[in-house]
Design a protein that fits this description.
Chain lengths: 483, 686
């Protein structure tokens, strides 16, 4: 059986069912996301790791007078992101089953939750669509669906601030979508095709590349369109964990990675542009998060910085250093798991104590050892302490930066190491303040009962975080071999 | 070869098991069993490697296509020496911890034992890899697991502060190490030490400043971990915090691993050249700075564990002095260099034994009385006699008093640094520098003795004054571990030939171009003679011949006393005619060396220096100017104003469509005229 197409279709069916069964929406959503996960895993068993398989070459749009093939692709890059999307998708929906309840001390959520699960499952389906897309047009189709879902989910609580943040996110990412559309038009008008590898043969190569990069940077919150992500933190925490850590923002870097892997000849000036934007985003994010009080905003700025790392790695790959490019792609999966874990544990603390502010939370470790373990694991993975996952990918990016022996990349590499140290200092300081020491008032008054589904998904994600380098390693090795 | 795999397996299973056990006794017991197993394996294995001068290599897995590095366990004599040290100290530490954790009633052992075993695994890993990437992995793992041990008591503010300083200081300097490793990789395309050695000579030839920078990064990373001042500012705040058995492992092994790393890098990774000489001198000078400030500051300390941390700083300075002198002379006079290097490494071995012993003694004091403050405890000899004897042995060893082991290593270090006066090829200022270093280190040896006399006298001698009424008897396991360490001190001091041979093998295995053992040290089991130049003995030390008459005399005197049956009587202390309560006039720890303390305490600006060490540094405030932050918040000055202006513009345009019919008709007429004009223009008049 062809499990890939099933993996694509199941979330959409599940979204429909979740919307219909309003009161049992959580249960239905969990079942459907579990089925998606199983289909995805069967898909991996079917294809061995390095094989590229394209299904269903059928062409639509015969009136465009050209051969545009649509279908599904599953190569190592897709597989890495697919693991990230469907595993974290399932765990986040399981987590939401416990989190979205009236007992939530941070924000009470009342049934019916049909809207929420509808958009979440739609989102999972759209993300699977993005990573399995075989040309740019198909990718764009699913890209815009994710923009729509993000808007709906951020404004879920329908408060004033949430509505404004959702609109802001929608407009900013849609401006990116507009530039994507212009790039598509340019591509078609010259080469009559939307294939990934068509960029190298265009005469307006640089312009199309810059437009696509602009779209990716709008989606992945780089300079200049990065201010929507910290404001999007008013969304419920599972939404933040999924959209803004593990999946949606990874769509932008996936686009860049796909361009990198499919094209062998790109000019150096564009690489320079990507490098500058990535590094300056890193520095801006690390300065801005230094004095944050809200834990979720802190994690949002940190996400922006790490996406800068991934883009920096990919730019090194385009420039010629294989290690850097592979390191950037490896960082996608490491960062996804770690940030997801961090967001979910912050959400759990907010569920129990009702506060996300660093000033109000102290001494959490005595009452909630599980949350402490989860946050510390995620933190060590993000900072880059061996043997956790973040170290390996960051080290590969640094190696790639210095391997080229170019003054510019050396300088960028130095700035990246410096940013890593700064980020570490603040993270460890926050970790000390919030988790160790005497328990503060809010922690002492916290609720004792945490739903089982939340605990289960936290433990699963903790284990996955520790083994994520082992999971990702065969795929990136295959990428190197087949490049 | 199987032995090291077996021990790794035992350690990992111990770690997994103890993370789930809440009972202190049981989890301590499991740790002890696993540790006995693995310590014996490693001990046997490392002795095997050293005696037969083997070289073992075994590859576990490799990252070959991605990064050119592989996890290979490769052990030569230098690594085997350190494995020996680790196995001895870890065995005694786990034996001690078994019952020691009963003191911490509210903290669970789940937070202690897994991290302790992880620390053992990481230390074994650090000495057995010859690949830069995996070296960094194990190095950071060591930092991580020791951080968890430092913050074991999570509610104490001092523990948190110590842990934070420790982690930040060591991690920031490890980032320098990572920088050095990626720069070296870009030249050598391989992470293993052999390949880096080959390509480093190219870097020295073509870009000398870059090679100095790389050496600086490596130097700073290891010097911070070792605790050399001024980079080791975190050490006195950190080492007293964890439970004493963990402190003993830190002071006994962890700082010595930094010395191992420095020695390994400067001998194996970096080829011998003029750079080695420069950095040898720099290492030696930082070492002497650390000796001087560390030990004098230790004189002013009143709390037992803090006192010992300062001494750890001082003693590590001795090791760096020995290694620095050795590195400087390695091309000029190999005999001198070999003596200095052997002195440095022998000091590492001795120091790990007696430093661990002293920390364990402090732990016993804490177990018995609940405090380690020297002002509050005294006269403990009556209640723990064996511990007091081992403390005395440890103190005499660290001070360098014969016949214990500290003496011979200190002798080698002093002699090598002062003997440099005879090297006429060396620039005379540098010679003068080395001689001054030698003189300072001899002086500080006396200060060390003074400081430890203070420790032993205040804690153990004198009248028994209990501040805590609850007196537990020391369990036999704690006493046994201390006796084992003290016995090794005595043994290494009486028969120095055995450890010297072992260490000389280690030095040759890593640096390679030194003269044979028999031409440098002549002698046999009873003692040893030292040659600084070929066939010319400069000194000899035969401890047995001195100890035997002393022992005979001691036995004679004691038997006389026993035979004569001299009467003993207890009297009250005579206070010169006044009536005093004993507590008012007792000579507490604080009272020792008062005039000296006044001499070395001064104030510069706002910072008070006690014993050349600043007390109470004001916290550094760090803030970014508000205007700079405003630029970064792009929203406020770019996006919102643009959106506002656009909205206003659209609202202005919307005025066109008011619901007045006349306006629409005028628009229609003008619009159609405009389109007709356009059509005429495009059709070109046809």
């Amino acid at each position: 059986m062809d499990f890939l197409i099933l993996t694509l279709i199941t979330p959409f069916i599940g979204a429909f069912f979740a919307y219909i069964c309003k009161n049992k929406a959580g249960f239905m959503a969990s079942i459907f996301s579990l089925i998606t996960l199983l289909f995805g895993l069967f898909n991996f068993f079917e294809i061995s790791i390095s094989k590229i398989k394209i299904y269903y070459n059928f062409s639509l749009f015969k009136w465009l007078n050209s051969e545009i093939n649509f279908g599904l692709i599953c190569d190592p890059l897709t597989s890495i992101l697919l693991i990230l999307i469907i595993v974290i998708g399932f765990l986040v929906i399981l987590y939401s089953a416990g989190y979205m309840s009236p007992l939530n001390a941070d924000h009470q959520f009342y049934k019916p939750l049909g809207n929420y699960y509808f958009f979440m499952l739609l989102f999972i389906g759209a993300m699977v669509g993005i990573v399995t897309a075989v040309n740019f047009l198909q990718l764009f189709f699913f890209w815009e669906i994710t923009t729509l879902c993000s808007w709906a989910l951020i404004s879920y609580t329908k408060e004033q601030k949430a509505l404004f943040s959702g609109l802001k996110a929608f407009i900013m990412t849609h401006i990116g979508g507009l530039s994507f559309l212009i790039a598509l038009a340019l591509m078609y008008s010259e080469a009559k095709s939307f294939d990934f590898s068509v960029i190298g043969s265009l005469s307006t190569k640089s312009l199309v590349f810059i437009l696509l990069f602009f779209a990716a940077s709008a989606k992945s919150a780089q300079i200049p369109l990065f201010t929507w992500l910290p404001d999007a933190m008013v969304a419920p925490t599972p939404v933040s964990a999924y959209l803004h850590a593990a999946a949606m923002v990874k769509a932008g870097v996936y686009l860049m990675a796909r361009i990198y892997l499919s094209n062998a000849s790109l000019a150096e000036s564009e690489v320079f542009v990507i490098g500058i934007i990535a590094i300056s985003t890193m520095m801006v994010s690390v300065i801005l998060y230094y004095f944050q009080d809200d834990l979720k905003k802190l994690l949002a700025y940190s996400t922006i910085g790490h996406l800068g790392y991934i883009l920096f790695g990919i730019s090194l790959g385009i420039y010629g250093s294989k290690t850097g490019g592979i390191g950037g792609i490896f960082h996608i999966i490491n960062h996804g798991f770690a940030k997801g874990l961090l967001f979910l544990s912050v959400g759990a603390i907010a569920y129990a104590t009702g506060s996300k502010s660093i000033r109000e939370l102290q001494g959490v470790s005595k009452r909630f050892p599980l949350f402490t373990a989860c946050f510390l694991t995620g933190m060590f993975a993000i900072i880059g302490i061996p043997p956790f996952s973040g170290f390996w990918s960051k080290f590969m990016i640094f190696t790639g930066a210095f391997e080229l022996k170019n003054v510019t990349t050396n300088l960028f590499g130095l700035i990246a190491i410096f940013e890593s140290i700064l980020a570490f200092c603040w993270y460890i300081f926050v970790g000390h303040k919030v988790f160790f020491g005497e328990a503060s008032q809010k922690v002492l008054n916290a609720a004792d009962k945490i739903p089982l589904s939340m605990k289960l998904s936290l433990i699963c994600l903790l284990v996955l975080n520790i083994v994520s380098p082992i999971i990702g390693y065969p795929f990136i090795k295959a990428l190197l071999g087949g490049y | 070869m199987q032995y090291i795999d077996v021990s790794f397996l035992a350690l990992i299973s111990g770690m997994v098991l103890t993370s789930f056990i809440k009972n202190k006794n049981f989890s301590g017991f499991i740790t002890l069993i696993m540790m006995i197993f693995s310590s014996f394996c490693i001990f046997y294995f490392s002795l095997d490697v050293i005696i037969e001068n083997k070289f073992i290599e075994q590859e576990i897995f490799s990252l070959k296509p991605l990064l050119n590095s592989s996890f290979t366990i490769s052990i030569d004599s230098l690594s085997a020496l350190f494995l020996l040290i680790i196995s001895l100290v870890s065995f005694c530490v786990s034996l001690f911890s078994w019952k020691y954790l009963d003191v911490y009633k509210t903290n669970s052992p789940k937070r202690f034992y897994p991290f302790l075993i992880l620390l053992f695994i990481a230390s074994i890993g650090v000495v057995s890899v010859k690949d830069f990437l995996f070296f960094i992995v194990f190095w950071e793992l060591m930092t991580l697991s020791s951080w968890f041990l430092v913050i074991f008591e999570r509610e104490k503010k001092s523990a948190l502060k110590g842990g934070l300083q420790y982690f930040i200081a060591t991690h920031v300097t490890t980032a320098f190490l990572i920088l050095a490793s990626v720069i070296l990789y870009s030249y050598s395309n391989d992470f293993s030490f052999k390949e880096i050695n080959k390509s480093f000579s190219l870097i020295i030839k073509n870009q000398p400043y870059l090679s100095h920078f790389i050496l600086f990064c490596i130097f700073i990373a290891f010097v911070t971990k070792a605790g050399v001042l001024p980079f080791g500012f975190w050490l006195p705040n950190t080492y007293p915090q964890p439970p004493s058995s963990a402190s003993s492992f830190f002071g006994g092994v962890m700082s010595k691993l930094a010395v191992y790393a420095l020695f390994r890098f400067f001998c194996s990774v970096i080829p011998f050249s003029f750079h080695t000489q420069i950095w040898g001198f720099i290492i030696a000078s930082f070492g002497v700075f650390s000796i001087f400030v560390g030990t004098i500051a230790a004189l002013t300390q009143d709390e037992a564990k803090r006192l010992m941390s300062f001494h750890a700083i001082g003693q590590v300075g001795y090791m760096f002095l020995g290694i620095g002198v050795g590195l400087y002379f390695i091309k000029i006079n190999p005999f001198l260099a070999s003596i200095a290097l052997v002195g440095g490494l022998f000091h590492v071995f001795n120091n790990s034994i007696y430093k661990s012993l002293l920390f364990l003694n402090a732990g016993s004091i804490f177990y018995k009385t609940g405090t380690t403050d020297l002002n509050k405890v005294s006269g403990l000899m009556k209640v723990m006699p064996l511990t007091a004897i081992t403390a005395l042995i440890g103190s005499l060893s660290i001070a360098g008093v014969p016949p214990f082991n500290g003496f011979i290593s200190k002798l080698l270090i002093f002699e090598s640094s002062i003997w440099s006066a005879k090297q006429s090829e060396v620039f005379f200022l540098i010679r003068g520098g080395f001689i001054v270093f030698g003189i300072i280190s001899v002086f500080i040896s006396a200060v060390t003795l003074a400081s430890f006399l203070k420790f032993v006298n205040s804690a153990f001698m004198g009248k028994l004054q209990g501040t805590i009424d609850e007196k537990r008897n020391l369990p036999w396991s704690m006493v046994l571990s201390q006796i084992i360490l003290a016995f090794i001190c005595l043994l290494a001091g009486l028969f120095p030939f055995i450890p010297l041979k072992i260490i000389y093998n280690a030095v040759i295995a890593s640096s390679g171009s030194l003269p044979k053992f028999s031409s440098v040290f002549v002698g046999n089991m009873l003692g040893v003679g030292i040659n600084f130049v070929e066939n010319y003995s400069q000194g000899a030390w035969f401890p047995i011949f001195i100890m035997i008459p002393l022992i005979i005399l001691t036995i004679l005197i004691f038997s006389f006393e026993r035979y004569a049956k001299a009467p003993k009587r207890d009297v009250e202390t005579w206070y010169g005619g006044k009536e005093h309560a004993p507590e008012e006039v007792v000579y507490k720890g604080h009272s020792f060396y008062q005039p000296f303390k006044d001499l070395v305490s001064f104030k510069i600006g706002k910072i008070q220096f006690k014993g050349f060490y600043p007390v109470g540094i004001p916290a550094i405030k760090f803030s970014v100017p508000e205007s700079f932050l405003k630029i970064l918040r792009v929203d406020e000055w770019l996006y919102y104003p643009i959106v506002d202006k656009l909205t206003k513009f659209f609202e202005f345009l919307a005025q066109i469509y008011n619901s007045i019919t006349e306006k629409y008709i005028i628009w229609l007429i003008f619009g159609s005229i405009f389109i007709f004009i356009l059509l005429f223009y495009f059709s070109g008049g046809r």
